[in-house]
Amino acid sequence: MSFLQGPQFQAFLRDVFQLTVWLAILSAIFVPLERLFAAHPRRIFRREFGVDLCYYFLNSLLTAFLISVPLSLAAWLTRRTLPPGFLETMAGLPVWARASAAMIVGEVGYYWAHRLSHEIPFLWKFHAIHHSAEDVDFLTNTRAHPIDMVIDRFSMFVPIYVLGLGGPVGASGTLVPVLVGLFGTIWGFFIHANIRWRLGPLEWLISSPAFHHWHHTKSGPIDKNFSTMLPWMDWVFGSFYLPDHFPKDYGVRGNGVPHTLLDQLLYPLEGDGPAAAPVRVKPADEAVEPSGATSTLGQPAVVAEPAA
Ligand SMILES: [Zn+2]
Ligand SMILES: [Zn+2]
């Protein structure tokens, strides 16, 4: 039996088909909204649309595979090291309590891994692929180097398992991580969308497109808004920034990040040289915000700290 007739190839084709259906559903939701409520005028087939489409399939297929071994190891270590009865106690909590706690501890893990990806030059070269998007829309959500994607997922799920919120006790052992992962993925498409909706006072509670678009700014204050779902965590850790308008441009300074998929995948592994990490903005270079720009929490617009 050739590989093309084998069960693994059949499973691969089934996964590709399911992802295509999901993409059609996401497009049916976000493309009309991005036409009707655009934050910036933008074509559907904008710059590097094809590259981001490849990332959609590549990361969806690869990340689950790459993350499965380290996550299984983390879950096994948790079972071996946590005090007897602890997992049973946590499993006895209502699903809403476990899901809420998982969202918070998962976000803490993600926040710091994400922040370190900005501050440690080696990690930044992987993460810079995501930030190199100059036309941010819903599809930008999956634009990431697979290693960066694995770091994000790992940092989010390990605290959930370590605190016994991810099972594997009982039939619903994996329900909470699945719920958190699903909600985070869907919300990730929303916060990248080119939609000018604002959520009013809820914007400090749950992330919005404006909140995350400021994370992608090229000329505004950089290294802000690291949370993916809970903006108040940025407020707690001093990186919250949300004026009443959208950033005027997106991307990274410098010409470090290449534009083709293969070059981007190899780029973080190339070391320093002509393709060194994109320029990190020094405070003196920061674009000056319009006077009086404040966050929705009433804090003055903050100038970014220098990146490490
Ligand atoms: Zn980032
Ligand atoms: Zn993003």
Tell me what you see in this structure:
This protein has 308 residues and is mainly alpha-helical. It has one domain (8-285). It is built from ten helices and no strands. Helix 2 (49-81) runs parallel beside helix 6, helix 4 packs across helix 5 and helix 4 (95-119) crosses helix 6. The longest helix has 33 residues, at 49-81. The radius of gyration is 20 Å and the shape is globular. It starts with 6 loop residues before the first helix and ends in a 42-residue tail after the last helix. 35% of the residues are buried. Bound molecules: zinc ion (2 copies). Residues 114, 118, 127, 131, 215 line the site of one zinc ion.
Main features:
308 residues, mainly alpha, 10 helices, 0% strand, disordered C terminus, binds zinc ion
